Amino acid sequence: MNNNNNNNNQIANANQNQNRNEMKNLEKKVTKNLIENYSNLLNGNSFKDFSIFVENESNPFEIKVHKSILCSRSPFFNKFLKEQNDIDKIF
Question: Which InterPro entries match (predicted)?
Fold first, then answer.
């Protein structure tokens, strides 16, 4: 009887370890996919809905950004854009 209990415990432990490994692999795949998706979103010009204009004497330039990402990553821009939500471009 004791051998059956040991075998059952070993099987249960093996199943738990397999489930943990499968979850870790799934988490890695999801994380990798999410990073790739955000990278494509940030590097592409599609759907960018806000511009930051940088005035520099020799080289003024525009940075196109996504408001939602800007707001989620910066408390300053989150507050600022909530206050200015009806303005498309701020100079």
Answer: BTB/POZ_dom (IPR000210), SKP1/BTB/POZ_sf (IPR011333)
The DSSP code sequence of 6-57 is HHHHHHHHHHHHHHHHHHHHHHHHHHHHHHHHHHHHHHS-TT--EEEEE--S
Q: CB-hemisphere CA count at 13 Å for 63?
A: 9
- What is the C-alpha separation between 28 and 44, in angstroms, rounded? 24
Is the pTM higher than 0.70? The answer reads no
Q: What is the DSSP letter of 62?
A: E
- Total length of the chain: 91
- Whole-angstrom CA distances from 35 to 1, 53, 66, 69 are 51, 27, 16, 13
Asked if 67 and 50 count as a contact pair (C-beta separation under 8 A), the reply is yes
As a whole number of Å, the CA-based R_g of the chain is: 25
Q: What is the pLDDT of residues 70-85, one digit of tens each?
A: 899 999 999 988 887 6
